[in-house]
Amino acid sequence: MERSRDLGTSVSAARLRRKATRLILSYLPESLRSVLVRPSSILGGAKVLELGCGPGWFALEMARCGAQVDAVDIAFPVLRIGQRYEAFCADTMGLPGRVRYICADLNRGLPLRTPGVYDAVVIRGTLHHLLDPESVLGDVHRSLKPGGMLLVDDGLETQTRTAILAALLLLLLPTQMSLRWKLRRLRHPQLMIAYMDRHGDSPFEGASGSNAIDMIQQRFEVQHFETFAAFTGILITELRLRYLERCREPILAAFNLLDRLFISLGWLRGSAYVLVARKVE
Ligand SMILES: C[S@@+](CC[C@H](N)C(=O)[O-])C[C@H]1O[C@@H](n2cnc3c(N)ncnc32)[C@H](O)[C@@H]1O
What we know:
Blueprint: H1 2-9, H2 11-27, H3 30-33, E1 47-51, H4 57-64, E2 68-73, H5 76-93, E3 98-103, E4 118-124, H6 133-143, E5 144-155, H7 160-172, H8 179-187, H9 189-198, H10 212-219, E6 220-228, H11 232-238, H12 248-264, E7 272-279
Parallel strand pairs: 1-2, 1-4, 2-3, 4-5
Antiparallel strand pairs: 5-7, 6-7
Helix pairs in contact: 1-5, 6-10, 7-8, 7-9, 8-9
The chain binds S-adenosylmethionine.
């Protein structure tokens, strides 16, 4: 717990978190970043529910835009980190909105069940962890005001051509993997697909194994859908530059641009999607 106090409340840690936030945002598509643009953010004064908030960096950014956020996660220690950091930010730089952290298991339904209270619900990287996403989406639909916004981002299965390109890049770039490992992944793309899809595994990974996008379309009117990060995600974690570590960010930014270009030209599909939908009665 001492460690989480440090993470939450020292000035240097706060600077580091701001830098990390800016970095993460630079890899997210415009449709996700745009909701956080101040002062014109559509979240100003909005009542927002975030499910699976983790340490709450996105919830905090929404509060910086003036949103009143209820942020839910099952992991108490990460919520504590978020809570301490939010208190620190509110004390030292002021916060137009606020975050209320709620520790709950979404597999038991939403912790707050009053219907029609939220202007927006945000679910980032969490839907695929849930045992019954359809029932959670039903609760989300009820909890939104009419016309309320649902913002979801989550993973997609890796395509074969993406896996081949990623394997080729890993072969050419410095990583910790052996040459044999890399050549095997290049010759057998299904091994690379499995490696990329397992990437970032947690004990809850892929619990639902179901198609959440169809479920969302059945209940909501989807207004925007795009995919992002075809191969950048795997490069971020695997690239090892040793003495050239300071070149890491520009190199990854260049690959990210290439990634976006290939997706926009329709040559690749991203390994993640972002979706904006509205509640229609
Ligand atoms: C991949 S992380 C995403 C975290 C955060 N949204 C972000 O983008 O940094 C998935 C989060 O879902 C949470 N989670 C998984 N299963 C859950 C459940 N049954 N109830 C509540 N939270 C859950 C995990 O604790 C984790 O923080």
